[in-house]
Amino acid sequence: MKKIVVGITGASGSIYGLRLIEELLHAEMQVTVLVTDAGRQVLGFETGLNLAEDVQECHQQLMQYFGATDNLNYYALNDFFAPTASGSNPAEAVVICPCSMGTVGRIAAGLSDNLLERAADVALKEGKKLLLVPRETPFNQIHLENLLRLSKVGAHILPAMPGFYQQPETVADLINFVVGKILDSLDVEHQLFKRWGTDK
User: How much is the pLDDT for 193?
Assistant: First the structure.
């Protein structure tokens, strides 16, 4: 069972993170969820899912929301005793979805002020997958330089830019396209969108 960390930050587009977690759990991955304070606020505003600040209560909320069992973990951002904080127990991949430009900047600077930033740093130093899903527009030069810096050291930059060649009919179709591209990068099979040149 693959271990995947999914981080949700304060960028708009928290529904992408929720949908990704749902699909990873469906694919029987071991998922660790990390949510920043700003991510919790935006998540509540955009989706109505108001996560408790208490760690145990929040974990139970997520378990209930996703109908998960023992394959979903949740840790506070100040818990550096969590398994994902150490290179001796790295996840196969860390996905930050959506990823704020503040988070991008701190990771690019090598900072690890919280567990999510530390997990990203561990992924880079251990040669594991780090996928960043920025949802910002327009980018300024600082944003672009930070993203390029991370790309040069092995991070995969996958902006939340849905394609339209699949002729989406709903917002869910647009969300599924982006989440499907993330799953492709993680080598996780899915049926979230019709592939170019195929009937499926």
Answer: 87
Query: What local confidence, expressed as pLDDT, does residue 53 receive?
Result: 93
Task: Please check if 47 is assigned to a binding site.
Answer: no
**pLDDT by residue (tens digit) across 32-74?**
999 999 999 999 999 999 999 999 999 999 999 999 888 999 9
102 is in an annotated binding site: yes
Where exactly are the structural domains of the chain? 3-185
Burial of 146-165, coded b for 16+ CB within 10 Å and e otherwise, reads bbeebeeeebbebbbebeee
Instruction: Tell whether 16 is in a known binding site.
Output: no
86 is in an annotated binding site: no
3-state secondary structure of 36: coil
State the CATH class of domain 3-185.
alpha beta
Ligand-binding annotation for 9, yes or no, is no
